[in-house]
Amino acid sequence: DPYAQLLLEAMKQSGCTVFNDRHFACENCDGCVSGGFDSATSQIVLCQNNIRHQSHMNRVVTHELIHAFDHCRAHVEWFKNVKHLACSEIRAANLSGDCTLMNEIARFKFGLKGHHQTCVRDRAIRSILAVRKVSKETAEKAVDEVFDACFNDLEPFGRIPHSKTDAKRAYRDFQNRGRYNANL
């Protein structure tokens, strides 16, 4: 998957190599959660009982790898600072494909102007409420306070990948970043 390839390469370049047998786990999970990132172990958990399709698994892996990337590069205080969590959830919803037009149509959510931003905001709030015992108002306030900065933080993609083709381009661009600067 080009999304995962890019994130794994970016993590490696940031000094956080990922080992499949160490950093990924498949487990049965409660409720309708599809996955999670355990910052204490730097492990991505995939909820095998709640993931039914390869495309869904790819999105979950990408979403959780964004959290792992943020943990690596930004030293996120997951449990001390709700704004840090909000920022990573915004980035994950924005960059993982969670809010693509096709996914939103499948959820029977349609909209034109500003729909992507609305989806990202709503999914970030839902994710915060799923992992932290905070009020909806607290989650909304945290998301709103950091939304613009975090929505516009496109690292390591450099763009919002709306499709696998976009993700492949972003990966190719990422691989070539150093080449341009080396020629200056």
From TrEMBL:
Transmembrane segments: none
Pfam families tied to this protein: Peptidase_M76
GO terms for cellular component: mitochondrion
Enzyme class name: hydrolase
GO terms classed as biological process: mitochondrial protein processing; mitochondrial proton-transporting ATP synthase complex assembly
GO molecular function: metal ion binding; metalloendopeptidase activity
Organism domain of life: Eukaryota
Documented EC number(s): 3.4.24.-
InterPro entries, per database record: Peptidase_M76_ATP23
Keywords: Hydrolase, Metal-binding, Metalloprotease, Protease
Family membership noted in the UniProt record: Belongs to the peptidase M76 family.
PANTHER family tied to this protein: MITOCHONDRIAL INNER MEMBRANE PROTEASE, MITOCHONDRIAL INNER MEMBRANE PROTEASE ATP23 HOMOLOG
Name of the protein described by the UniProt record: Mitochondrial inner membrane protease ATP23
Organism listed in the record: Opisthocomus hoazin
